[in-house]
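quick one
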Amino acid sequence: MLEITGLGKTYEGRGGVEALRKIDFRVDGGDLVCVVGPSGCGKTTLLKCVAGLLTPTAGEVRVAGRRVTGPPPGMAVVFQEYGRSLFPWMTVRKNVELPLREKKVPAPRRRELVEEALAAVGLADAAAAHPWQLSGGMQQRVAIARAIAYEPRVLLMDEPFAAVDAQTRAELEDLLLTLWRRLGVTTLLVTHDIDEAVYLGRRVIVLSSAPTVVQEDLAVDLPAARDQITTRSAPRFAELRAHVYAQIKQAKGRAAGDRTAGDRAAEESAPPRQVPSPAPRDLKRKTDGRTR
Amino acid sequence: MTRREERAGAPMSAPRAAGLGLLGLACLFAVAEAVPRLGLIDPRHLPPATAIVRRLAAELGDADLWTALGETMRSWAVGLALACCLAVALGVLIDAVPGLRAATASTIEFLRPIPSVALIPLATLLFGAETGSTLLLVVYASFWQVLIQVLYGVADVDPVARETARSYRLGRWARLRHLVWPTALPYVMTGVRLAAAVAFILAVTAELVIGSPGLGLRIQLAQSGGAVTEVYALIVLAGLVGVAVNAVVRAVERRVLAWHPSVRGEVAR
Ligand SMILES: Nc1ncnc2c1ncn2[C@@H]1O[C@H](COP(=O)(O)OP(=O)(O)OP(=O)(O)O)[C@@H](O)[C@H]1O
Ligand SMILES: [Mg+2]
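structure w/ magnesium ion:
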């Protein structure tokens, strides 16, 4: 469904910033793949290239066999900055409906899709509200509703849950899994959170720090049905996250010599969850957080 | 000027602010009454406030005054509307065509500071002492106010919102209508509010100087006829109309921008 071959992106400007060196991987139809990597390694850049919002400087992206030159049809993107991605001058319903109008979906079907999508994210009652009247978690759910109402074949998400609190985040993660299972939409989710990547993904793609390449392509062999408490406390989950963590640490260590000031600044401004603590303590903190 | 700067200020409860405002007006009235009565200024040059008010009341009973006021307000409304349409159309065009902003920037910087009144000779040459002259000055003065704001507004589209619109494949027209225009609207409204005031000032000025029909001409006639109290009464009337104009535009602004952070605190929730 998604083929990324030899993808490279160097931003123009002073000296040029090489955000991506050479990325190769593919995502099968209906799969859910998480891309994880250190802050500033080019995750957003990668996602924007896939979404057709940025033109790569090397290689190509293919969606369903067709080369991406601009935003391809049947693709929805959920951004981290939900507050800026929703239009404050429109109600929730209008926000969700707008892409459908552009897609020339007839009005009755449009209404149906909007209702369904809002119900699916548990916001059926909020249709007439404006986004700014909702909490952050609710706003991100609106953005998700807008994406699924669009009936995309490919769903791209850029750190969709990074800006909400831990409990909302757990809820949204489970919501995403439920929707994904129900709709079978091919999903590529970018995150800097190793736990989240392992918890959500069927596969986890680990990116190195700049110059960025695919460090590892890891199949997650956890049971298909996932649950915040049992999955996260499973020994296999701990093993996988420890493995991914080691990979990222190794990649960082190797690249430490030629890191730029920008990379360091990006790392320092990252939320605390970015730097994982050893597995047992971290898991304990998380389960505590949920039961409190 | 951005909206945020403009909106910032010490918060004060509405009734308290209104009370203070009335107190200020009362003081002004008292001073304007006392100064001529105490002989500090010759009452022939500045009649007492009560005399001005009485004169104004009498004037309001005169049908000719209402005709003159109607002329002025028509020039104001037509000129303002024309200027707004032109400015919005041009602003959007400048934003939509790549390179046009850079190409027009210096021209705008050159034309904008030209005072409208400097166009009076040109206006009289073109239209004589008629409404056309008033319109020309009004349009020119208010056009720049709106255009500058439109140019700021269309440039303020949030990059994330823009990428969202692109990723959902919104076409040119849809992006203009659902993204660029709503983003620019708060700026446009600020421009319209500024322009509304400027337009009224220019309408009266043009009538006064050129002698085209309207409130300004009436003031001019009163002055040349030595009717000092009437001059003052008409000036007060002009002031009142200015206040009303501002109030109307603000009310429209609040309705149109109900979703905007500067307004929504007062309406919804
Ligand atoms: N528009 C741009 N112009 C120039 N350089 C850019 C631009 N956008 C990103 N970069 C650079 O490209 C690199 C990758 O940025 P990107 O935003 O893709 O990283 P990221 O992995 O998404 O980071 P984060 O985890 O902080 O979101 C960084 O070094 C960044 O400074
Ligand atoms: Mg990013």
